[in-house]
Amino acid sequence: MSTILETAVAKYLRSGNPAQRTREEYSTTLRKWERWGGGVPLEKLGRKEIREFLDWVYEDAVAEQGSNPGRTANKVRSHLRAVMSWAWEHDIVEALPRFPKLKLQRDVAGRHYLTKAEINSLYFATHQMKRPRGWKHPFHIGRYWRCAMVVFFNYGVDTGTVWKTEPFHEPILWRHISWGKQSPDREMKEHSRWGWLFYRRTKTRKTFYRPMNRTVHAHIQNIMPANPDPDAPVFLGGGTRPNNRFRTLCSLAETGAKANIETGEVRPWVLKDFRKTCATFYDEHIPESSVEILGHSAGGVTYRHYAHRAPLAFKAIMTIPQPSAFAALARGFDGQCPCCRRRFNDAVG
User: Fold this and answer.
1) Residue ranges making up the domain that contains 237
2) Residues 111, 258: contact at Cβ < 8 Å?
């Protein structure tokens, strides 16, 4: 029995319980599908049909004098890919079709990722962070923030995965760190000489076993107490509102605010912007790898298929070029500028 797109979208949305705005966007895509005359069942939907549909969406947006037809077509493409990946997970289709390349689009939202130069400035500015009132932990707060930035950059995790600010958040604990070469997930065949990191996404609750590269390994060891409590959180210093401290850090680093290029609206950076930063640099390094690293729905696969996707994420994490500031600790220059060896004095007041 064939499966029509409308049925697949309805089941996909029920399985993920997305926001109302997301449901409305998928409904818009279905209306476009009907106008195009889409009667192709999912089992027979291939690259040719997808390309013809996306070309029609683009031309329709041009005919209606849309301000950004490329972005409209790419949004529809992302919806189709997410539904087809879900159908593949549930054995509705035997294989995922190859999707056409993204259309050229105008970035109407402005730049929503941090450059490596800005990350370097933020990293060194952590030495200027003042010690919070009542701070009794063994290391300066900036050391925890430097480690957190490395984890944000390499894995694109949620803020609640690093610092527990809500009751439902599950932060990374010391028992989630494995220093062995073999992954705790026995389904994975790869070995990491630097160890492994486990975490669960706040939004989807999906679990991930990620390899630590040299940079992540060095920074986590740098904040590890002599006798870590397995149930204690790895990262400290976030407070009840980590974004407020991040804004202060941006001020110390003199990082300019992000702005909408059309309206000129200026907004402060937030920690969630590290997810976009992570995706940007991973896709520059290995195209499409960000889908696997960030755990987007388009890349969601069951353990039966996971073994085929894990090598991509493993290779990307182990080889991604790091911001130059991150290399200071890995090369043994903790608290020093990696280029001129100038010492940084951590603020104490």
Assistant:
1) 116-330
2) yes
- Residues 23 and 133 placed together within one structural domain of the fold: no
Separation CA 79–CA 17 (nearest Å): 15
230/225 Cα distance (integer angstroms)? 11
122 in a structural domain: yes
pLDDT of residue 23: 87
Rounded CA-CA distance 144/277 in Å is 20
Other CB atoms within 10 Å distance of the CB of residue 66: 15
Structure tokens at 93: 């289709």
Alpha-helical regions (H) of 254-299 = 273-285, 289-294
pTM of the model: 0.67
Q: What is the structure's pLDDT at 2?
A: 84
In three-state secondary structure terms, 184 is: coil
Distances from the Cα of 19 to the Cα of 9, 16, 95, 190, 267, angstroms: 14, 9, 28, 36, 23
Give 210's strand partners.
Answer: 197
Consecutive 10-residue runs of the chain (349 residues): their mean pLDDT? 88 80 90 90 90 94 88 91 85 86 70 85 93 90 95 95 91 95 85 94 87 95 94 94 94 84 75 92 84 67 45 89 85 63 63
- Give me the number of domains the chain comprises: 2
Please report where in the chains the tokens 């003199």 appear, as a residue. Answer: 254
